[in-house]
Amino acid sequence: MKDVPVWEKYTLTIREAAEYFHIGEKKLRRIVDENINADFVVMNGNRAMIKRKIFEQYIDRATAV
Fold first, then answer.
1. Residue 48 falls within a domain, yes or no?
2. Facing residues of 49 across strands?
3. How many structural domains does the chain have?
4. CA distance 32 to 37
5. 24: burial class by Cβ within 10 Å (0-12, 13-18, 19+)?
6. What is the rounded end-to-end Cα distance, in angstroms, of the chain?
7. Domain extent at residue 15
8. Residue 13 domain-assigned?
9. Contact, 20 vs 59, CB < 8 A?
10. SS3 16
11. For residue 59, which phi and psi values (nearest 5 degrees)?
12. What CATH number should be reported for the domain holding residue 15?
């Protein structure tokens, strides 16, 4: 099975997103918990996944993380 590079993935796990965006996993989990209905969060069962491009837009608009 071919591994897809993280910058080409549509969704990222919390761990992948933490590495990609250089944000701590705890901070990302807090962001997800506070924005559970945001467009950048999709739930896969009980696992939160981050939509990479939409989260990039969220980060671009944020003044602090």
1. yes
2. 42
3. 1
4. 9
5. exposed
6. 35
7. 6-61
8. yes
9. no
10. helix
11. -65, -40
12. 3.90.105.50
Stronger pLDDT, 14 or 64, i.e. the higher one? 14
Looking at residue 1, its amino acid is M
Residues near 61 by Cβ (< 8 Å), separated by ≥ 6? none
User: Per the structure block, which two tokens stand in for 54?
Assistant: 């939409």
Those residues whose C-beta lies under 8 Å from the C-beta of residue 9, and which sit 6 or more positions away, are 16, 52
Does pLDDT of 47 surpass 90?
A: yes
Q: Which residues of 28-41 are buried (b: 16+ CB within 10 A; e: fewer)?
A: beebbeeeeeeebb
Q: Does residue 29 lie in a domain region?
A: yes
**DSSP secondary structure code for residue 1 in this structure:** -
**Three-class DSSP labels, 19-62:** HHHCCCHHHHHHHHHHCCCCCCEEEECCEEEEEHHHHHHHHHHC
pTM, to two decimals: 0.87
